[in-house]
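User: Show me an example of a complex going from sequences to structure tokens.

Assistant: Sure. Here are the input components:
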Amino acid sequence: MSAIGTHLILEMYDCPAEVIDDLERVREAVREAARAARSTLLHEAAHSFQPQGVTALGLLAESHISVHTWPELGYAAADVFTCGEQARPREACECLARRLEAGRYEIQELERGAKAPPERPARVPEPAPAATGPRPGQCDVG
Amino acid sequence: MSAIGTHLILEMYDCPAEVIDDLERVREAVREAARAARSTLLHEAAHSFQPQGVTALGLLAESHISVHTWPELGYAAADVFTCGEQARPREACECLARRLEAGRYEIQELERGAKAPPERPARVPEPAPAATGPRPGQCDVG
């Protein structure tokens, strides 16, 4: 039975505080990670916390990317969830780690939906804004 | 060394297609899950796919909730990431499974940030809209 999606859990340590406390920088990292994953960013949500820390979420045609940061610890927690054979979630993780200047990072891979019935979904993303990158094909499972 | 956050991975199977294809219902489930987690919902993003399937993301003061659905498979993938001792992410998962009428579900727990330095963050959520539930205290790690 094949999985419906791939969910990567990304732990980033030793990130410069000023980098991961910069909301626009983290948002731009999410946008670039979506492109690196060959995914389509449909919506964004982001928030800057006091006294520090940011969260940025990207809703993808292929699922989501999240980043939460703790600048005081140099730590950023991210996940990249994608479906479809075209998606490249690992490239998205590497992109995030590079953009957020992580001194070290770890990726854990989870298969999602492995116990769902074997039919294939045919989710067709709606057209995305031109600025968010190329539109993928159907979000078929592998 | 204690973790900074708890990340629960929730697999929901045997969900009625009409329930998990209903964007408003899934959004409402995320809102209720945030309340069940004793968390504060700061922003939402949601999308309805063609021919079916929805995604709903909730940005919490304490991290995030995501739900992605495949009505044609009766499958919904969710995750609930929280920080802080007050948060109750497992209650949020149980709430989602109940609201999305999952015939069966599985929860996997991941500790996030366990290798970060031991300092304690002091993230203070900004005031949330009144409708999104009680405001938590500081998002301290346990």
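The lines above are the inputs; the final block is the predicted structure for all two components together. Chain A touches chain B through 50 residues (CB under 8 Å).
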